[in-house]
Design a protein that fits this description.
Helix content is 45%, strand content 10%. By secondary structure, the protein is mainly alpha-helical. It has two domains: 153 residues, Orthogonal Bundle (Cyclin A, domain 1), CATH 1.10.472; 60 residues, no CATH class.
Length: 262
Amino acid sequence: MTDKSAQDELLEPEEQLSEETFFKVVTRQLLKEVMKGDNDNYQCDENSPFVSERVPTIAAREYIERAIKYMRCRRDCYLYACIYITRYLTRTGTRLCSRNFHRLFVISLALAAKFFDDHHYRNSYYAQVAGITVAEFNSLELEFLFKIDFALLIEVESYRLFHRNFMRGIALIDLMRLIDERYHRLNGPNATVAENTPLFQIHIQNLQSTIQLTPAQTNLQSSTISTQNIKQPVVVTIVKSVTKLTISTNCSILKHITFKVY
C-alpha cells in the first residue's frame, strides 16, 4: 500500500480525480461564474484596479489554460485561489465578470502558490504569465491582500467543505455561506478568534521570511520589526488587542505595512 500525498489526505476517496478531470471541473466552475456576471450585465466598479478598461482579448478559458501551463502550481493551489477569490468577492460586494476575472484569478493563484507551495516563482515571472508589468502585478497583489485583510490561512475542514461542494458545481457565493454557517455552528454566532489561531500570515516578497500573527498572553500594544537581511522564517506573536504592527522590509513594494488587529 503506497503512502498518500499530503494533498490526497485532504480529499475524500471519490474526490481524488485525475489531473485532467480536476482542471476541467475548475475551469468549468470559474467560467460559469464569469458568464453569470456577464449575462446579468453586472456593472464593474470602474475604480477597481482589477477591472480592465475593456474585455481582454484573451478569453477567460484560454487564460486559465495559460496559467495551468506556465504557473506550474500544485493543483490544490487552484482551489485555494478560488477560496481567496470568494473572500475578495464577499468582502468587496463584487462579482466575477469578463473584465475583472483575469487579474483576480492570476493574483489569487500567485498568492496561493507562495503561501502553500514549496516551489514558486518571482513576481517578475508571474507578471509575464499575466501579461502585465511587474509594477502593476506588485500593486494588484498588495491591493488584493488588503481587500481580504491578509486572510490567507485556510482551515482544513473549510478546505474540505469548499472542495467537495465546488467540485459538485455549487456557486462560489453559496460556498462561502456554507463555510460561514459551519464555522458559527461549531463555534457559536459570536465566535472569536481562538488563542492559537493565526490572525494573519504573509510571505514577504523577495525574502525567505514569513510573518505570522497569533493572539498571545502579553500586554503588547504595538510592535515594530525589521526583516532586513533575515534569511530564515520569522514568527511574531502579538495579542488580540494589539493596535498596530509595522513590518519594515527591504522589498520595494512592502516597505511599511501597518496591521490593525481587532
